Every structure is written in C-alpha cells, then in structure tokens.
Amino acid sequence: MKAEGTCKDCGRINEVLSRVGDRWSMLIIISLGTYNVLRFNELKRILGISQRMLSLTLRELERDGMVNRTYHPTIPPKVEYALTPLGESIRAPLRQIGDWALDNLPAIDAARARYDAQKELERESA
Amino acid sequence: MKAEGTCKDCGRINEVLSRVGDRWSMLIIISLGTYNVLRFNELKRILGISQRMLSLTLRELERDGMVNRTYHPTIPPKVEYALTPLGESIRAPLRQIGDWALDNLPAIDAARARYDAQKELERESA
DNA sequence: CGGAATCCTTCACGATACTG
DNA sequence: CAGTATCGTGAAGGATTCCG
C-alpha cells in the first residue's frame, strides 16, 4: 500500500528525488558535470566509492538516460562516462538545492544546537 | 573514511540533500506547505506513514529547524506541526526539482524502455 | 491523541575474490 | 581496466504493544 494522498504523480516525483538525493547518484552527476568525461576508475578514485556501488549506480543512471556509457574495446579496455543532455539538464535545479544548503547550513547548525541544548536541559531537570 | 574529493562542503550539502531526497521528509514538507498546519494523525493519514517513521522524521525536521512543533496540553492532547521560515524557504528549490521531474518523467521512462529493450536483445542473441 | 519502546525482517552497502 | 558474483553485516523501516 502506497497511499500517496497528496498528488498522483508524487510517487514518481519522489522516485526521481530519491535518485537525486541519493548520495552516490548526486556525487556522480556533480563529478561528471565538472569533468565532462571520466573513466570508471577515475570516478572510483575521486568519490571513494566501492566498485559495486559505482557499477550499480552508473547502470541506474545510464538506464534513466542521465549518463552515457562509451566502451572502447582496446587492451586494456577503456570505458568513459559522461552526462547526457538529460543529465546536464538536472544540474541547474540541483544547484538550486545545493545553494540553498550552503546558504542555510549555519541556520541548520544553530537550530540543532538549540534543540540539543534544550533537550539537555529537560533531561537535567528530570 | 569519507573521501569527499570534490569539495569540502560536499559532505554537508549531501547531508541536506539526503534529508530532502528522503521519501518522508520531502512529503512532510510538501504537505505542511500545502495545509500550513497539520496534526500528527492528520499527517499520518495523509501520507500513509507508520507512526514510528513519522515520529522520527518529524523530530529530525524539528531539530533541523524546518518544522515547528506546538503542543496543546488539552485532553485529549493535541500537537500541531507547521513549517518554520527555514522550512518555507526550501520549498522553492524543492519545487524546481519537482518541476524538473514532472517535465522529464516521460524522457526517463523512454530511456528506461530503450535500455531494457536493448538488454533484452543482447540476452536473446546469447 | 501522540507518542516511546521493542521486536523482527528486509536489504543497502562494503569487502573480497574472480573474470574477460 | 572494468566490471560480475558472493557473502556478511548494520541499518532502515514496518508491525505491534504500552503509556501519559
């Protein structure tokens, strides 16, 4: 039972947001946006991601049409990854969130400090 | 070992993005943005979320200063949740992603269909 | 009504080893 | 080099029960 009471596309939108909000997908998109083209092990080294997760995440991104995979049948083999136009197009809204995060991290940290201090007081008075 | 090779704030930004990308956090923010004020069980009913996850997620959002919790010591008790200004402020960038998702869902679906069909062909030829 | 505590299952993820 | 396959663990999340 899903019960998306808000709107009927919320499920799909959330699906996309989950993909974007996913740790590795986002970092891969950012990296490819920055370097344009990267090989498998370059991404692996840059992100500090396990082979397994990199392989899985890249496959998802490729399937969703966000990333282009180019296989060069040389020896040793060489595989290059780049953003598709679709992948490029998500960078702008992604940056919006990133900018918001940067702008509001201090506020979030302050809120957390307040919250934790308050809870601490409540616990002492018990 | 975290190894954020991209930028030093990437860890924190990703933290925020994970919160936003999280299924329930996002849906709660959207719901509170739509209805302004909601009680615990109203949110529960609207979202089809378990008590446990709703409680945990609301606490996180409150701690981060995104959501305001108001306790009315009546009988029976009544607790109301609403967005703080900080919570309100994330709605705009969130909408950007939502709009992107809506606009590009057909492209994503098409890409998936292409990908799956291609993989199917490859498997047949084996 | 609005939670907190407990239990239990699933699975996301990393580490490791193997292959073309 | 660029993966796939397998295994083990911790954490996420639902169901249930109890409490102020």
Name some characteristics of this structure.
mainly alpha, disordered N terminus, 67% helix, Arc Repressor Mutant, subunit A, homodimer, 12% strand, 126 residues, DNA-binding
Description:
The structure is a homodimer of 126-residue chains. Chain A is mainly alpha-helical and 126 residues long. Chain A has a single domain (10-125), classed as Winged helix-like DNA-binding domain superfamily/Winged helix DNA-binding domain (Arc Repressor Mutant, subunit A), CATH 1.10.10.10. Chain A is built from six helices and three strands, in the order ααβααββαα. Chain A has helices at 10-21, 23-35, 40-47, 51-63, 85-89, 91-124, and strands at residues 37-39, 67-72, 78-83. Chain A has a three-stranded antiparallel β-sheet with strand order 1-3-2. Residues 1-5 of chain A have low confidence and may be disordered. At the A-B interface, helix 1, helix 2, helix 3 and helix 6 of A face helix 1, helix 2, helix 3 and helix 6 of B. The first copy, chain A, binds a DNA duplex (20 and 20 nucleotides) through residues 39-41, 44, 50-56, 71, 74-79. Chains A, B: This is Winged helix-turn-helix transcriptional regulator. Chains A, B: It comes from Roseibium aestuarii. Chains A, B: InterPro entries: HTH_HxlR, WH-like_DNA-bd_sf, WH_DNA-bd_sf.
